[in-house]
Amino acid sequence: MQTAIAMNPTREIPGNFGTKSAGQISDELLGFPPSCRAAALRYHEQGDFDDLSAMLPGFIAFHLPSGTAHPPEPLADTLRLQEDLGLDSLALTEMAFKLEDLFGIAVETSEVMNIHTVGDLKAFLKRRLNAA
Question: Residue 106 and residue 39: Cα distance in Å, rounded?
């Protein structure tokens, strides 16, 4: 039986994420906004980085401290994660753990602390996912 990755080797999806079922991905994103889960499933199916980018507003919103306004959609690459969107260091750390679990990529907390904008986050994810 072939995995999803073996059927379409040009996709930018790490093997661990690519071998998960749609149900597993939905379960791992339980509590996240429906738009985030839907974008994750599209990314899993098609491997288009734009779908991964479409996950970010919901992914960020999930990790915001209570009472913080939800981020706009789409997210401008220049938005700063802490100053503009309201993520604190604990939220950034939790995001790093979730990225590790979801995509099966190594993410060091110190690396995440050096990501300041949405554009930085996208570039980081693209590098990590391409290296996986």
Answer: 22
* Structural domains of the chain, ranges and CATH numbers in brackets: 4-131 (1.10.1200.10)
Q: 65: cis peptide before it, omega within 30°?
A: no
Q: Which two tokens stand for residue 90?
A: 């604990």
Q: Give 85's contacts (C-beta < 8 A, 6+ positions apart).
A: 60, 64, 68, 71, 79, 118
Nearest to 73 by CA among 87, 54, 89, 59: 54
- Is residue 15 a contact partner of residue 5, using CB atoms and an 8 Å limit? yes
Q: Which pLDDT tens digit goes with each residue over 105-127?
A: 888 878 888 899 999 999 999 88
- Residue 112 burial class via C-beta count within 10 angstroms: exposed 0-12, middle 13-18, buried 19 and up: buried
Q: What's the DSSP call for residue 68?
A: P
Predicted local confidence at residue 109, as pLDDT: 74
For 15, the enclosing helix (H) or strand (E) is: helix 15-18
